[in-house]
């Protein structure tokens, strides 16, 4: 028997729910339980890229650790909010897998900057800021509420940086600002440069990634003789052309050309 919490979890977008659930689990272990040594979750470039037994999981786990205390609750909330908004409602991520590619690009830029400047660390804060920046670009002049303050959405990234500066300090704000750099670079390459600079979008979703996130079939209808599935739209990934879809008419349409399609003057039965 399913619970309302489980139903709500599976109803959420796949990337948003997976990232949020993994963040909660790993953060609880990192700050409270420590069943696994927290040291193995931190991004340390020399351990990731070493020749023997590279610890490549650090490329992922470093994005899934919140800040301590209140951050264990607030960071997953903001992560889920912005992930869901981009994955479901953003027009720039209309095709399957687009949001996943954007996530990989921003994470790669953040890891590069953090490794150069700080030599590693935990990088969920820059990722959250990058997602927030991309989210507000869809409607920058719309009004929103941030900690009971009504403001235009375009000011959300600056407010998040200001809060980090006050609560964490300048080094934390600088690290979080790397998310602003990565998101602005992504926005420039995928929207500003193609739309206003006459260039092209170099960040495209591969067909393989589109197949990962494409729906395998339409909704099913249970019938007495089996289950009928709705076909994919003709423009979707993996859709197959239907036989005879280019023709119109019934079964007699095959006889509408040549001598079969013409009619004579006709004769009266029994006449000359």
Describe the structure.
- It is a multi-pass membrane protein.
- Belongs to the derlin family.
- Residues 224-272 are annotated as: Disordered.
- Residues 244-260 have a biased composition (Low complexity).
- The chain is mainly alpha-helical.
- The chain has a single domain (4-213), classed as Rhomboid-like (Rhomboid-like fold), CATH 1.20.1540.10.
- 50% of the residues lie in helices and 6% in strands.
- The protein is built from ten helices and four strands.
- The strands form two sheets. The protein has a two-stranded antiparallel sheet with strand order 1-2. It has a two-stranded antiparallel sheet with strand order 3-4.
- Helix 5 packs parallel to helix 7 and helix 6 crosses helix 7.
- The longest helix is centred in the last third of the chain and has 27 residues, at 170-196.
- The protein is globular, with a radius of gyration of 27 Å.
Topology diagram in text:
Elements lengths: L3 H8 L2 H20 L11 H4 L9 H4 L9 H19 L8 H20 L6 H14 L5 E4 L2 E4 L3 H12 L2 H27 L10 H7 L6 E4 L2 E4 L43
Antiparallel strand pairs: 1-2, 3-4
Helix pairs in contact: 2-5, 5-7, 6-7, 6-9, 7-8, 7-9, 8-9
């Amino acid at each position: 028997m399913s619970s309302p919490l489980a139903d709500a979890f599976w109803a959420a977008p796949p990337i948003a729910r997976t990232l949020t659930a993994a963040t909660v689990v790993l953060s609880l272990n990192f700050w409270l339980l420590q069943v696994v040594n927290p040291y193995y979750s931190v991004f340390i470039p020399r351990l990731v890229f070493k020749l023997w037994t590279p610890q490549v999981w650090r490329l992922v786990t470093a994005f899934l650790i919140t800040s301590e205390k209140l951050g264990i609750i607030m960071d997953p909330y903001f992560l889920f909010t912005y992930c869901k908004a981009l994955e479901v409602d953003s027009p720039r991520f209309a095709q399957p897998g687009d949001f996943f590619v954007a996530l990989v690009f921003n994470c790669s830029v953040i890891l590069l900057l953090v490794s150069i400047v700080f030599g590693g660390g935990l990088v969920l804060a820059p990722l959250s800021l990058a997602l927030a920046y991309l989210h507000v670009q869809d409607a920058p002049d719309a009004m929103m509420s941030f900690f009971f303050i009504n403001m235009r959405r375009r000011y959300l990234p600056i407010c998040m940086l200001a809060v980090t500066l006050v609560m964490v300090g300048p080094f934390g704000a600088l690290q979080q600002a790397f998310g602003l750099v990565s998101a602005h670079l992504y926005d420039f390459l995928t929207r500003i440069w193609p739309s206003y600079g006459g260039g092209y979008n170099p960040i495209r979703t591969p067909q393989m990634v589109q197949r990962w996130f494409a729906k395998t079939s339409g909704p099913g209808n249970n019938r007495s003789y089996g289950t009928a599935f709705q076909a994919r739209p003709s423009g979707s990934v993996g859709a197959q052309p239907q036989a005879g879809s280019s023709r119109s008419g019934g079964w007699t349409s095959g006889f509408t050309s040549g001598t079969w399609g013409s009619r004579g003057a006709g004769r009266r039965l029994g006449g000359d």
